[in-house]
Amino acid sequence: MLTKRDLLKWGLVSGGAALIGANGIRLASSQTGEVCPADPPAQSPPTTPFIHALPMVPDLQPVPLSQLNPPPIPSNHQQWDRFPPVRYYEIRVQERLHSFHPELPLTKIWGYNGIVPGPTIRGRYGEPILVRIHNDLPPNHVGFGIPQIITHLHNAHTAWESDGNPNIGFVDPGSFRDHHYASYYAGGDEREALGTLWYHDHRKDFTAPNAYRGLAGFFLYFDHKDSGNELDPNPQALRLPSGEYDVPIVFGDKVFTADGQLFFDPFEFDGFLGDKITVNGAIQPFFKVARRKYRFRLLDAGPSRFYEFYLSDGRPFELIATDGNLLPAPVVVQFARLGVANRRDIIIDFSQYPIGTQVFLENRLEQLDGKGPTDRILSRGTQVLRFDVDRDAPDSPPLPLSLRSLPPVNITASTPRRTFVFERLQGAWAINGQFYNPDVPMATMKHGVPEVWTIKNGGGGWSHPVHIHFEEFQLLLRNGQTPSPEELGRHDVVELHPNDEVQIYIQFRDFVGRYVMHCHNTVHEDHAMMTRFDVTPGP
Amino acid sequence: MNRRNFLTQSAMAIAQTVLQVRQAVGADQAPAYRPGKHGFPNVTLHTQENKTVRFYDDLVKGKHVVVNFMYASCPDSCPLQTANLVLVQKALGPRVGRDIFMYSITLDPTHDTPEVLKGYAERFGVGPGWLFLTGRPDDTELLRRKLGFVDSDPIVDRDKSNHIGVVLYGNDRLDRWAACPALSRARDIAEYVLWMEELKSKPASAIGAIERGVAALPA
């Protein structure tokens, strides 16, 4: 809620000295009334840190099949008979008012079921589901974003008609689309299990503004190993922290106008940075924790910012999963680094802190524009979340020494090789010199034929978080070197720093259709840095 | 963020904001989103017919528009882009000039007089409803920066022959804006331009998107 003090603080009632920027952003020099000659940083209204709690995201509840009217059409989906849904869900994309901070007024967001972030979907391997997603957005919407949707489940092993291909057909207001998720390990191999996924809008050329307005949520997969039960009696279960101690956290940097409204700049083609880092839709919240282990599933929802998260007291923590996929073994790390769309599951053990301790999660990675981070690590970063250690609680069992082994890599002389160069072209973005053309595949892959891809940064000082739909890959080389232990798992997003070249191992299985690879700096993605590839049945 | 978002605005804008904030306080709900109508410089420009116009008031306000930057002596990229946009104009048909307006703003206002631009437009067979615009160098430069046609590398940015080859389209009424490479396929650009219109709400039973998805399934 706004107070008169806030208005005075912002110069809005003091005598008209404030200057309002082009799109309602207050000028950095507004106190003096001078026009600032150089680019000032974005300046959202000030907010008092750590005065509200980290929002807990509700789980999406299944609905009876009879609620889906009209009923789903099985022939619309590949392998429906092989993977008949055992549960059904329904989501409505709605415009609502949301509070990012108690001192900011409510602002218009788009949310799955009207909330930011969207409800968490909990899936289980071997249990196929169907999710019907309705578009209830107002067709006459004014402002950034377009009220048409396409929902991508990043990075499910999914038939293309359910994947959220940005061109498959926009879902207009009043319409819906059914997504059939087979919940099947790629190749039937449990070493290919996914854990922390997210769903988000992927409408062609409007992914940045639509997702920024709130269209993002978590989707978590469980199986007999990562079972979601820390007391699981099954000897194969990893018994990782579960329930209230398994906390998905999505980061999104945003800008607010002087009157507290969510702002996006469609005339910024390099990438869009916010000065307020929201955590599960809240600016600088606190989280009361017990003296025990927690699993945090960190997600960078973009649009363009990279993060390197540290605990403010410098203590290490354990990394257990990268891009949602459990590592072979936990890795002790000082920080968790995320590019846009990356996920990092970490274990923080708060039993090492006495009750009453406050410790912050802070981002120390410097980034000044949409091009990418400077890679300067700040001695004191931006505190985004405060942990308040306030109670004792029974702990989960010790972390297992091994988590999930990696599937084998089989490379022979006849393994197909391809090269993709991500480059700037005429002020927009291209792959191998071509702007995104949804009608022509740049590559066609066959089931059962693994490939080695070289992915290069075309230079110019840009960073690109490159995302491949449908299958996870393993990093073979980064700039000719063996990747670090944190990068040795399976991934669906790889950071290409300026001048980087990576080699990956990837194969395509089980489903056929049209998929895409693109830069997940969503502004680059919306300006043509995407390519179509097709997957066809085996040789 | 970029400096174009920080231009000085009138006392009216301040008053409006204060009013909206007060309304928000009073009504305990968010004010209506204010379209970025004040984001465009209202500079004076001259058309290829030597008509004087104001950028925002005459060309953008309440309109559905397509905007790019070019210059007549540009050796490589502009001729291709202009030729491509001629195809876009043809694909959009008689709507150009009626309810969709195309604007090409020169990066070389010193040399690109209205006469030069008129000759350029004629050479490419540009149809009605598409204005080629020149003005004071400070003003066209301000427009270029405000509309985002800027390279973050100052050396690249100073090189006119390497300018941003993007075409911007939008609808001021909806405050909806997007851009794509000016060398994208012309029929795609024409389709993107039409995305800037109001959507029609469909009946709840419509499943068009699903049907399209199936039709596109590979064999």
What does this structure look like?
The complex is a heterodimer of chains A (539) and B (219). Chain A has 539 residues and is mainly beta. Chain A has helices at residues 4-9, 160-163, 207-212, 522-526; strands at residues 87-98, 107-112, 118-124, 129-135, 151-154, 176-181, 196-201, 216-222, 246-256, 262-263, 276-279, 282-283, 286-291, 293-300, 307-311, 317-322, 325-333, 336-338, 343-349, 358-365, 377-392, 417-425, 428-431, 443-446, 451-457, 464-468, 473-478, 490-491, 493-496, 501-506, 513-519, 530-536. In chain A, the strands form six sheets. In chain A, strands 9, 10, 11, 12, 14, 16, 17 and 19 form an eight-stranded mixed beta sheet that branches. The radius of gyration of chain A is 23 Å and the shape is globular. In chain B, strands 2-1-5-4-3-6-7 form a seven-stranded mixed beta sheet. In chain B, strand 3, helix 3 and strand 4 form a beta-alpha-beta unit. The radius of gyration of chain B is 20 Å and the shape is globular. In chain B, 46% of the residues are buried. Chains A and B meet through strand 6 of A and helix 1, strand 6, strand 7 and helix 8 of B.
